[in-house]
UniProtKB/TrEMBL annotation:
This is pyruvate dehydrogenase (NADP(+)). Binds 3 [4Fe-4S] clusters per subunit. The keyword Transcription does not apply. Residues 702-731, 758-787 form the 4Fe-4S ferredoxin-type domain.
Amino acid sequence: MLQTTKKIKKKIISNSLFKMFSTKEPMDGNTAAAYIGYMMSDVAFLYPITPATTMGELADKWSAEGKKNIFGIPLQVTEMQSEGGAAGALHGAVAAGALATTFTASQGLLLMIPNMYKIAGGLMPAVFHISSRLVGGQGLSIFCDHSDVMATRQTGFAMMSSGTVQEVMDLGFISHLATIQSSIPFLHFFDGFRTSHEVNSVDVLNPELMKKMVDYQAIEKHREKSLNPEHPHLRGTVQGTDVYFQFIEETARYYNKVPYIVQQYMDQFAEKTGRQYRLFDYLGHPEAERVVVVMGSGASPVEEIIEKFPNEKIGLIKVRLYRPFSVEHFLSALPKTVKRIAVLDRVKENGAPSQPLQSDVVSAVHGKNIEVIGGRFGIGGKEFTPAMVRSIYDNLNQLNPKNNFTVGITDDILNTSLSFGENIDAVPQGTKQCIFWGMGSDGTVGANKNAIKIIVENTPLYGQGYFAYSAHKSGGVTISHLRFGPKHIDSSYMITDSDYIACHLKSYLGKYDHLLNPAKPGSKFILNSPWNTIEELEKNLPNNVKRQIARKKLQFYNIDASKIADEVGLSGRINMIMQAVFFKLSNVLPEDKAIGLLKKAIEKEYMRKGEDIVQKNKDAVDTGIRNIIEIKYPETWKDADPENDLQTIPKKIIVQDPQFVRDVMRPILAMKGDNLPLTKLDFAGKIPSGTSKYEKRGFSDFVPKWDSSKCIQCNMCSVLCPHAAIRPFFISEEEKNKAPYPEVIDVLEDPKTKEYKFTIQISPFDCTGCTVCANACPENCLQMVPSETMKTKHGDNWDYMMKLPTRDSIYKTTTLKGSQFSQPLLEFSGACAGCGETPVIKLVTQLFGDQMIIANASGCSSVWGGTFPWNPYTSNSLGHGPAWGNSLFEDNAEYGLGIAKSVSQLRVKLMAYIKDFLAKDLFEKDPVLTSLLRKWIDVFDDRVESNNVSQEIQKYLESKKHLFETNSKKSIFSEFSNETENAMNYIYKNKDLLAKKSIWIQGGDGWAYDIGYGGVDHILASGEDVNLLVLDTEVYSNTGGQSSKSTPRAGVAKFTASGKTTAKKDLGMMAITYGNVYVASICLSANPTQAIKAITEAEKHKGVSLVIAYCPCIEHGIKNGLGIGPAHAKEAISKGYYLLYRYDPNLLALGKNPMVLDSSKPKPGFHEFLKSENRFESLKSTFPDDAKLKQDQLLNDITQRYQRYVAFKGQFDSLLKQKKQKKKN
């Protein structure tokens, strides 16, 4: 029999208070934490960081809606410029007597640490809610482990751990109660994504219950200690060696009380709700000999294994209150029979003999006859399943159990890993499990969250949902894992035994051969495809899919949801169609009731977008239900020939793949990265150049086809393509005839060359179908056609074209047309279809990419541009290309400055040595090398010329390599017999420094305007020869569209749900005030010519340059989509919404006006323009009284801005006129 608190739960749940104070609702962990933080606080200060961001967004939304907390007022929510700023503001708030909270994760939490020491040292109540996420080392990751919270152990904060969504609600509340009474600040943490984003059935605490449990006298005492001139005092003093030690020790009495205060509140909470918690909760056999100790969501699969094997003498201790760690309470929870303990840490402290929790447990059982071993699990969000738990208990049963083990990976270097067996079905009996394979931006995830809500709120069933995402911004894989059942479900791992699988994109069947592996025999499989007949399915289904369908006797259905979506006017949005199919086939609710509830959900979700959108979605539901086709497949499918399986990767490509792609990237693309052993990953997270070209996603149903008869060869399609999937080429007649399919290559004469013909080539496997090129073409010579008609011939021709020489000397590369014949060294990124950021950086790489170093701030551009194992930055035929690095979000400017200083110093050192070599006449017998080196010295600071001379020197030294390669392992400081050879060897070794580098420090407006502005300002004042590129989407586009200081007035964003009340920060004008900074404001989508001119001038400028690029973004809610981004951007410029200009301080010395306004006077129609973006239009439905006022104020903002710039330009006109007049006089 298991020893547990479940009997207590059943007894108390019958109490009438339970129903009075609780309602069951589906919500995720972040919502639960936000609800508690909102209800229990006066103020909140925050800053967006994944996966914690939605907590702050919800708090801001509720505040804007006027929802009251338990104190009878809306929470005051303030978005700060950084997490450090949030912690500082919170410190001030609690010092002034408020109850304060914040929400953060990972590096954000680390930025708060200095203030955490101050808050704890001052004995000030506060609660930090943490969606725990790893702290990036060799790479950034948004998934959970405990490296962030473990870094705060010394701060003096009490630490409370929650492992389920319900616990987030309950223990978050208890944390607030305990901090008020104890005066010790609390850090309440739960696993990022695994718990923060898991949707589950939650008993929501009623505000009346919360009010009854608050210690109001303790709140009064806190306020009595506040900073107030009516009872003044001084705090935050400077202390000397005489008293500091004593003050530290004096606080021990407060900390000693915390465990008892927390347990007291846990007991009171149980009396009122029926949910009993203890500081250390034990579950398992009353005479357990083997016990696992763990914190967080990892406890759930351990608990399931204990319940699966009730007769084994095994147990579990869930750690709730981690700091202060009460040895007394830990030992009282531990059965007296325990012989061995396995402590599981979700963190690795490199160099430590044991991990943090293990060290605490070892200390707690010191002197007891108990063996403690440690292990690591789940780091970086790695799956932790019942089968892995079973292996841990089995390890404890060994004669010599493995210590410091890992589970969930294959460690073939140090052999720390435990092997584990087949999946163990440990979910509660009666649970139905469903998997939905969707695509980012198709609405699948949102629809599944709605499904959970409908089921939980309208049936006695419990629900759970977890959502896995690929790294691509949109168009990537999403996998929704939904569970429903008569018992509460806390299975914190992916589904391995499914009753229902839906595949929303037919191409997944050929990419992911494990898609149907979880399907139970006789379960249902639903496919979205145009293959409605058995003949079509016979032809197109991979044979391995056929075998699994037939051998498992699956109930197989097909629906052409994509066609239905097009017919009802919802192109690409198949979410509601597939949800209707789910409700019809799952029988979880009566069909009529389910469809009715689904339509109500549609009204609630889409009403703000207009009645038309609501009706289209309803029509999609009705049409979808009528068009489900059950497939009666033949028995012969069971024996479908394995030789004819459609492979994820054709064999011909596998042979050609580089080793990294073959050994690392391909398994990850096939979603088998969890199986990669350590020996395959021995490169500290580095990615070789150009790996993205090997993916070939090919997910778009439509791609452009070029009509050469209309083409004017402007290359507009290429310059605006976000993914470099359409390019112009110069090709000879001979080359055309050698192409795989010359018959589909159309060519045009070009006036600049007779040897080559002009052609446009599309890559149908890399195109995302965004339609930007087709819509931007001035002559309408690109038409979207079914991709299947293009893939074979045009795909092979693309591969052929990529091997042809780059012919970029026929036209000047600084012109719109000429720039596009240069190889783009950014290609096939993971950005959204229609992205406005990638074309800008792609253009920069075409101009300077061969000698470019990029410091990239964390954000959208680091995710689509730097997610392992995809590297969209590629190299040219010489192997040269952008070298890309990322440090953090907040320090990117400083990181880039460090790169620039390092490169500059290394080149100066090389120059010094070469000058020394020449002074010593070491090359007197080699006039060619002497001449080249002197020439290099002359052009040292010229990027183009130094690059040209560098190639000459390298080519020459290659020809002489045999003279000095024997000395290649020696230093120039060694004694060589031939000093000349030694010098040549040194130059050759440092040849990568000969060419001047082009340093680009780039990132989004969240970095440049907010968290990183201090660093940006320092760079602007430094005079260093670097280029700052700000990708201005006017929101935090990576974390979901939060407001930044770049967000315009009236713009609806997260944290400004009622429309931003202040004007957009004028970063450009602020930079101009330095006088020596080149500043440009561009919009490539609207005016490519101006953008090219500005970028070229910026790079040429000797000093700091700042280029601010307005980028249309999915977060803007452009009503007709990003496909019309360029046309929409032109409207933005013409109406004055965005201003184009260039400020070149070099012009003043030439007697010219440094300020060039490239925008003309704003045209009428500004308010009409605002209607085309949901971020402005939605304000009319949510806050109609504010909408007109704020939008009128926005018009005033942009009018005054234009007038300021005209006046500023006029000042220089007057100055130059005066100078000219003086000169004449």
